[in-house]
C-alpha cells in the first residue's frame, strides 16, 4: 500500500494511492481523532486503513492535490551521515565505529513536485539521494532481531545540503536544515511490500543525468543496526523518520563542484518505491 499526505481544496488529509488516484482516508478516521498519517500509525491502524482503501473507489486524482511529505509532522527526523563507503572515501574521512547521526526539522522538507529552495545565503546547494523509513511501532532499546517489524514503511529522501554552512563547524546541522531545502516522498510504501530493504537500488538524477547510483546492501550500518542504535539513545515513536545516508557522487566532491541551481530538476528513484521529483527554486529576496 502507498500512503500519502496531501492538501486538496485547502484542506489537509491523508490517503491511499490507487494507480493515479487517491482514496481519501481522512473522513473515515476523523471520528476517532485520527487526523494525520502519523496519528494513524500511532493508533496501529494500518490494517484498518488497508481494508478501507480496498473497499472504496478513489475520490481524488493525484494530479489534483498537493503532496506533502508523507509524514508532515514527525516528532523526529534522524539522519545518518557517512553511511556508504564510497561517500566516506570521497569526503576523505574514515569509517567510524558508530553511526554518525544528526537531526533535521519538519520545516526543512517539502513533498513530491514541490520546489526545493536554495537559500539566499549560499549557492552551494547539493543533492543527497537517500532511503528513508518511518517507524510504525516504536520503543526503547529495540533489538536488531525485532527492528524490521518496527518499520511502517519506506520512502525516498533528498537531503538537500548547504555545503558551506555545513562546514561552519564539525556539527552538520547548520547545513542540513534550511527551510524547504530537502524533500521526502512521493509516498510511504508499507513495509509488507518491501520485505528486505537491503536489496533496493537507489539512483539520483540531476536534469536527467545520473549523479548517484548504489544498492542499499552497501550501507555501512544497516537498517536493523540503526534502529537498535537510535532506540538505545531515545524512544522511537510512530511517525519518526530515519534517513539512512547518501552514497558517493555528491556535487561538492566533483571537479568542478556540481551545485543544484534554480531551474534544475532533481530526482531520487528507489526500486520498489518510486521517483521523488522536485524542481529547484531560489528563495525570494
Overall description:
A hairpin with a 3-residue loop joins β18 and β19. It is globular and about 55 Å long. The strands form three sheets. Strands 1, 2, 3, 4, 5, 6, 7, 8, 11, 12, 14 and 17 form a twelve-stranded mixed sheet that branches. 46% of the residues are buried. The chain has 285 residues and is α+β, with helices and mostly antiparallel strands. It contains seven helices and 19 strands. The chain folds into two domains: 2-67, no CATH class; 77-282, Fumarylacetoacetase-like, C-terminal domain (Fumarylacetoacetate hydrolase, domain 2). Helices cover 16% and strands 34% of the residues. It starts with a strand and ends with a strand.
Sum up the structure in keywords.
twelve-stranded mixed β-sheet, 7 helices, 19 strands, globular, Fumarylacetoacetate hydrolase, domain 2, alpha+beta
Strand count: 19
CATH fold naming of the largest domain = Fumarylacetoacetate hydrolase, domain 2
Order of helices and strands: EEEHHHEEEHEEEEEHEEHEEEHEEE
Work out the helicity level: 10-25%
Which homologous superfamily in CATH is the superfamily of the largest domain? Answer: Fumarylacetoacetase-like, C-terminal domain
Q: Which residue ranges are poorly predicted, with pLDDT under 50 across at least 5 consecutive positions?
A: none
- The average pLDDT value, as a whole number, equals 97
The dominant shape is globular
N- to C-terminal distance: 41 Å
Number of separate structural domains: 2
Q: Strand pairing plus helix content: what structural class?
A: alpha+beta
Q: Under the CATH scheme, which architecture of the largest domain would be assigned?
A: Alpha-Beta Complex
In percent terms, what proportion of residues is strand?
25-35%
Main sheet, how many strands, which sense, barrel? 12 strands, mixed
User: Helical segment tally?
Assistant: 7
What gyration radius follows from the Cα positions, in whole Å? 18 Å
Query: Could you name the CATH class of the largest domain?
Result: Alpha Beta
Amino acid at each position: 500500500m502507498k500512503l500519502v499526505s496531501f492538501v486538496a481544496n485547502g484542506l489537509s488529509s491523508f490517503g491511499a494511492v490507487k494507480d493515479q488516484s487517491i482514496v481519501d482516508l481522512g473522513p473515515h478516521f476523523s471520528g476517532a481523532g485520527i487526523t494525520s498519517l502519523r496519528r494513524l500509525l500511532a493508533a496501529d491502524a494500518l490494517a484498518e486503513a488497508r481494508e478501507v482503501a480496498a473497499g472504496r473507489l478513489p475520490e481524488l486524482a493525484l494530479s489534483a492535490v498537493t503532496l506533502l511529505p508523507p509524514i508532515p509532522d514527525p516528532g523526529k527526523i534522524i539522519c545518518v551521515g557517512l553511511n556508504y563507503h564510497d561517500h566516506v572515501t570521497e569526503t576523505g574521512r574514515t569509517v567510524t565505529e558508530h553511526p554518525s547521526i544528526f537531526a533535521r526539522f519538519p520545516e526543512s522538507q517539502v513533498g513530491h513536485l514541490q520546489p526545493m529552495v536554495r537559500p539566499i545565503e549560499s549557492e552551494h546547494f547539493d543533492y543527497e539521494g537517500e532511503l528513508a523509513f518511518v517507524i510504525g511501532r516504536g520503543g526503547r532499546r529495540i533489538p536488531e532481531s525485532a527492528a524490521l517489524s518496527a518499520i511502517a514503511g519506506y520512502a525516498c529522501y533528498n537531503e538537500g545540503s548547504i555545503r558551506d554552512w555545513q562546514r561552519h563547524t564539525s556539527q552538520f546541522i547548520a547545513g542540513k536544515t534550511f527551510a524547504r531545502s530537502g524533500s521526502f516522498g512521493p509516498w510511504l510504501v508499507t513495509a509488507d511490500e518491501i520485505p528486505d530493504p537491503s536489496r533496493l537500488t537507489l539512483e539520483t538524477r540531476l536534469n536527467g543525468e545520473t549523479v548517484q547510483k548504489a544498492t542499499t546492501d552497501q550501507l555501512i550500518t544497516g537498517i536493523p543496526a540503526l534502529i537498535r542504535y537510535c532506540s538505545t539513545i531515545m524512544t522511537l515513536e510512530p511517525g519518526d523518520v530515519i534517513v539512512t545516508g547518501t552514497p558517493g557522487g555528491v556535487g561538492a566532491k566533483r571537479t568542478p563542484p556540481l551545485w543544484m541551481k534554480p531551474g534544475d530538476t532533481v530526482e531520487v528513484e528507489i526500486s520498489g518505491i518510486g521517483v521523488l521529483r522536485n524542481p529547484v527554486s531560489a528563495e525570494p529576496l
